[in-house]
Specification:
mainly alpha; Arc Repressor Mutant, subunit A; elongated; DNA-binding; 7 helices; two-stranded antiparallel sheet; homodimer
DNA sequence: TAATAAAGTTAGAATACACTAACTATATTC
DNA sequence: GAATATAGTTAGTGTATTCTAACTTTATTA
C-alpha cells in the first residue's frame, strides 16, 4: 500500500473515533491526532482519493472496506508496541501511546512479529512464576 | 538541543566515519547515510552553523567539542535499540541497524533508560540459567 | 603539465507535513 | 427565522528532507 505516516495515523484515528462517536468528524480526528483541522482535512482528502474512506463535504467520514482493512493493520502494529511499553517496560499509558505512535512506522513486519512473540514468551514466563515479573518490576522501578 | 532527525543522523554518521577513515568527507557520509551528496552538504552546513562541526570548503569535517558530545548522546541511544533487536529479538545486523535508526528519534530519555535496564535484566536472567535463553530463541525462531 | 576523473557545491524542484487566516456551510439558540 | 456559534474548507506559507542537473574545485594520471 505504501501509505505515508500521516495517512496511517489518520486511518488509526478514524478507527478509534468510530468507537467513541456515532459519526466520525474532522473535529474528533483533529483532537485525537493533536493537529489542526486543515491538516486533517488534507489527510482525509488524500485518503478519499486513494479510495480508503468516503467523505461528503461537511459530512462525516466512513471507511471503505479496503480502508478498514488498512486501518486494522496499522492498529495491530500499534497495539504490539503499546503492549511492550506498558506491560513490559511499565511506562504510563500516555507515554506508551506516544512511543508506539512514533515507532510503529519504522518497524517491518518481521520485526513486529518477533516482538509479538517475545511478548507472548514473557507472558508465559510470568505465568510460570511471578518471581520473574516481580524481579523485572524491581529492576525497572529502582531509583 | 532540539536537533532534527536528519542532523542527528548526520552526527552519528560522522562519529562512525571517524573510526573508519582518517578524515571524514562528504562522500563517506553520503554512503553511510544512503543519501546523495547535496543532502549531506546541506546537513553539514547546518551543523556548522550550529557550531557542532567545522568544515572548510572542499575539505574534511571535524567535530567541535559540543558536536562530539551531541553525537555520542545520539549514538548511545542508538546502541540500546540495536542491542535490543540483535540480542533479544535475534534480528540480523542490517535489520537491527535500520530499526534502531528509524526508532531512536522517537523515544524519550526515560523510555530508553527503562529499555536499557530491561536489557540488563534479561542478560542477568540468561546468566542465571541458559534455559531462559534457549527457550526464548526457540520461541522466536519457530515457523 | 594538461586532460580527465572524482569529489564537493549550488540552484532549483518535489514531497510530506504542519500551520494561520479568511471564508463558507451547518447547527444552535434566542 | 435571524443572529450567533461551531465546524469544515480553501489558500497560502514554512520547515525538513530529499532529489537532479549543472557547475567548481581538487586529485589523479598519461
Amino acid at each position: 500500500m505504501g501509505l505515508t505516516e500521516g495517512l496511517q495515523d489518520c486511518l488509526k484515528a478514524i478507527l478509534l473515533c468510530e468507537k467513541k462517536h456515532p459519526f466520525v468528524r474532522t473535529k474528533h480526528l483533529a483532537q485525537s491526532l493533536g493537529v489542526k483541522s486543515p491538516s486533517v482535512h488534507a489527510a482525509v482528502k488524500e485518503l478519499t482519493r486513494l479510495g480508503l474512506v468516503e467523505h461528503e463535504s461537511y459530512g462525516h467520514i466512513e471507511f471503505t472496506p479496503r480502508g478498514r482493512r488498512e486501518a486494522e493493520l496499522v492498529y495491530t502494529r500499534h497495539k504490539v508496541l503499546y503492549r511492550f511499553f506498558t506491560e513490559i517496560l511499565g511506562l504510563p499509558e500516555d507515554v506508551s501511546e506516544n512511543n508506539a505512535c512514533g515507532i510503529e512506522h519504522h518497524l517491518d513486519e518481521n520485526s513486529l512479529e518477533k516482538l509479538s512473540r517475545f511478548l507472548d514468551f514473557l507472558d508465559s514466563k510470568s505465568e510460570e512464576s511471578d518471581k520473574f515479573t516481580r524481579e523485572l518490576r524491581e529492576t525497572l522501578d529502582e531509583e
